[in-house]
Design brief:
Organism: Dryocola boscaweniae
Number of domains: 2
Protein name: Inner membrane ABC transporter permease protein YejB
Subcellular location: Cell inner membrane; Cell membrane
CATH superfamily of the largest domain: MetI-like
Number of helices: 16
Number of strands: 0
Helix content: 55-70%
CATH architecture of the largest domain: Orthogonal Bundle
Low-confidence stretches: 51-73
Radius of gyration: 27 Å
Transmembrane segments: 9-30, 135-156, 168-194, 224-247, 282-309, 329-348
Family: Belongs to the binding-protein-dependent transport system permease family. OppBC subfamily.
Length: 365
């Protein structure tokens, strides 16, 4: 198992390199980059918002309407601006260097976990990620934990009582939950329980209250759970169906196998058969889906939830940086998400061996 884990850990490096490289060159050739956005802000009189680009410099750029410059071919919006303004903006964002030089500098920085500074926020990318990570981890862990704690026992019960009334009405409820978009359910929860139109039981924004630091430890726990309840409920509403049906079908498949029939013929207790023999084999498929479930809760499933409940999580950070073409933040969040996903896949393989010691990854070569 040790040499297998070492190989998997070493494979993280080329995988990260390939993903970052492909996305880097796609983004570099895409129109509407940060330089274009900064030029557009100047042209429309919104100010540059760029450290190092002074108001006087921008003013001189406005005064020279009609001045031609060599940047017109690259940045269409730069027509009429002072070439010095364009040069200052491109230098600020590093676009005055050749693409291969920017690429290799990025790789060297990422090897050292140096993600640079945000282009549009006065903070480093690592600082922004550290600030956003607790929110995304909270949503991801709580949502995944609740989904597994509910879906696995429910799936087992549905497999044991396959075709019964319980199986039918429970399937109806989880299918209805699966059909409801998470953001619509979030809005419904706000209307009902967060002061929308009826009850005002839960807060609407943030992960903790403003006086969180002054609360005792038990008050902090209560305050945190008070804030996280509605976002987690909105996140998990559609997550039960897939895992519940996967658990049910896995157990049904195992229950019908010959070794279960033999165990029953020997007079073994039904619960012992179910939890000592069937459980270990049936849970392999369920464990295999853990990384995908966690990642979906961690990022893709939580972006809209973070927006609706005003939670500054990693998903919202990556989404905002994509819209604003904040390349350092974009690649930093992509790097972190990819690394977490790869590590979770390795953790999934380790869990396989705990569930079923007969699995030997070393034998796979």
């Amino acid at each position: 198992m040790g040499s297998y884990l070492l190989r998997r850990l070493l494979l993280i490096v080329p995988t990260l390199w390939a993903i970052i490289t492909i996305n880097f060159f796609i983004v570099q050739i895409a129109p509407g980059g940060p330089v274009d956005q900064a030029i557009a802000n100047i042209q429309f009189g919104h100010g540059s918002g760029i450290p190092g680009v002074s108001a006087e410099t921008m003013g001189s750029g406005h005064a020279r309407v009609g001045v031609g410059n060599g940047t017109d071919n690259q940045y269409r919006g730069s027509r009429g601006l002072d070439p010095e303004v364009i040069a200052e903006i491109t230098h600020r964002y590093g676009f005055d260097k050749p693409i291969h030089e920017r690429y290799f500098k990025m790789l060297w920085d990422y090897v050292r976990f140096d993600f640079g500074d945000s282009l549009f926020r006065s903070a480093s990318v690592l600082h922004l990620i550290k600030e956003s990570l607790p929110v995304s981890i909270s949503l991801g862990l709580w949502s995944t934990l609740i989904i597994y704690l509910v879906s696995i026992p429910l799936g087992i019960r549905k497999a044991v009582s396959n075709g019964s009334g319980f199986d039918i009405w429970s399937s109806t409820f989880i299918i209805i939950g699966y059909a409801i978009p998470a953001f619509l359910f979030a809005i419904l929860l706000i209307v009902l329980f967060a002061g929308g139109s009826y009850l005002d039981w839960f807060p609407l924004r943030g992960l903790v209250s403003t006086n969180f630091d002054s609360l005792p430890w038990y008050g902090k726990v209560t305050d945190y759970l008070w804030h996280i309840t509605l976002p987690v409920l909105a996140t998990v509403v559609g997550g039960f169906a897939t895992l519940t049906m996967l658990t049910k079908n896995s157990f049904l498949d195992e229950i019908r196998k010959q070794y279960v029939v033999t165990a029953r013929a020997k007079g073994l207790d039904e619960k012992k058969i179910l939890y000592r023999h069937v459980f270990r084999n049936a849970m392999l498929l369920v464990i295999a889906g853990f990384p995908a479930t966690f990642i979906s809760m961690f990022f893709t499933g939580s972006v809209l939830i973070e927006v609706i409940f005003s939670l500054n999580g990693l998903g919202l950070l990556g989404y905002d940086s994509t819209l604003s073409r904040d390349y350092p933040v974009m690649f930093g969040t992509l790097y972190i998400f990819t690394l977490i996903g790869l590590l979770l896949n390795i953790l999934s393989d380790i869990t396989y061996t705990f569930v079923d010691p007969r699995i030997d990854f070393e034998g796979r070569g």
